[in-house]
Q: What sequence folds into this?
């Protein structure tokens, strides 16, 4: 029995070669599975979706870097602004210690400085404005208004900060174009109808406007009314024509010097008073019309005529086509 069992064990360890039919069936089965997997592989690949992972969806490191960058920029801007403010506040060049004035002719510099009333060591930025434009251009708008109210003679005022430690005030004075009798004084008025100042005696280069029917007294800074402006325009036009005639005839007698006064009328006419060296006085009637330049030219020619001057004082009418001179009774 023992010999038989040993023999059977040896048989179990013997490997028999597979039969040809079994091998062919196995190969056929493997090939079929390979073809089946090859057919289903594209479908499986097409159905596969590559979803982003949590790390890809929420990049924690990138957000942190962006936040730090923005904070750094804000901090840098704040630091620069703080440094500029500190520099402006502490720098001595922004502490005022002097005022420069340019453009004044008739107004004394000391008078302007007394109105400015500079406070030494005051910070230059405290009185800037009002208005954004004044802040950006370093202008002192309140000081400009103060000077214009204090001095009617000023047409424009510009006050701005001047580096270092100064205020630069640039003024433009009004130019008188007419002189109006105002009681015992004379009011100097510019072309806009603004009363500049009152003087005791009229200037030699301007004829005095007489019979200026003003309902209110002429005080410095007063603006003429609409009716007063019409009378003023008549006188200024006549004065301008007299000056032009003097330039056209430089060798003749100056009409602006001979004309002592102008009396305007509401209807557009005016009477000129001319006084000559021989004490003769002419009352010349002119019209504020298109014929005014021609009438002034004729007047210039008559002042050179000795024959007419020898007749003495009288009235000359230049408003009609025919020139008429009526001599005063001796």
A:
């Amino acid at each position: 029995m023992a010999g038989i069992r040993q023999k059977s064990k040896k048989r179990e360890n013997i490997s028999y070669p597979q039969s040809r039919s079994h091998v062919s069936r196995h190969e056929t089965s493997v090939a079929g599975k390979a073809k089946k997997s090859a057919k289903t592989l594209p479908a499986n690949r097409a159905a596969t979706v590559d979803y982003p992972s949590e790390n890809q969806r929420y990049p924690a490191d990138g957000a942190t870097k962006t936040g730090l960058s923005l904070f750094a920029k804000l901090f840098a801007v704040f630091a620069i602004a703080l440094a500029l403010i500190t520099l402006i506040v502490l720098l001595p060049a922004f502490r005022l210690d002097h005022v420069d004035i340019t453009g004044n002719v008739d107004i004394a510099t000391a008078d302007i400085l007394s109105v400015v009333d500079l406070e030494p060591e005051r910070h230059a930025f405290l009185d800037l404005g009002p208005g954004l434009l004044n802040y950006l251009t370093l202008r002192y708008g309140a000081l400009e208004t103060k000077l214009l109210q204090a001095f009617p003679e000023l047409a424009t005022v510009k006050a701005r900060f001047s580096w270092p430690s100064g205020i630069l005030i640039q003024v433009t004075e009004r130019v008188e174009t007419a002189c109006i009798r105002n009681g015992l004084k004379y009011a100097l008025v510019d072309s806009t109808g603004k009363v500049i100042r009152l003087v005791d005696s009229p200037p030699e280069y301007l004829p005095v406007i007489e019979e200026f029917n003003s309902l209110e007294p002429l005080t410095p800074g007063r603006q003429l009314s609409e009716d007063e402006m019409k009378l003023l325009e008549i006188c200024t036009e006549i004065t301008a024509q007299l000056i032009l005639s003097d330039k056209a005839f430089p060798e003749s007698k100056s009409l602006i010097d001979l004309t002592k006064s102008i009396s305007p009328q509401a209807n557009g006419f005016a009477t000129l008073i001319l006084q000559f060296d021989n004490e003769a006085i002419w009352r010349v009637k002119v019209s504020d019309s298109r014929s005014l330049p021609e009438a002034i030219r004729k007047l210039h020619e008559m002042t050179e005529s000795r024959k007419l001057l020898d007749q003495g004082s009288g009235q000359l009418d230049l408003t009609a086509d025919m020139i008429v001179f009526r001599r005063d009774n001796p």
About this structure: The mean pLDDT is 83. Residues 178-327 form a domain with the Rossmann fold fold (CATH 3.40.50).
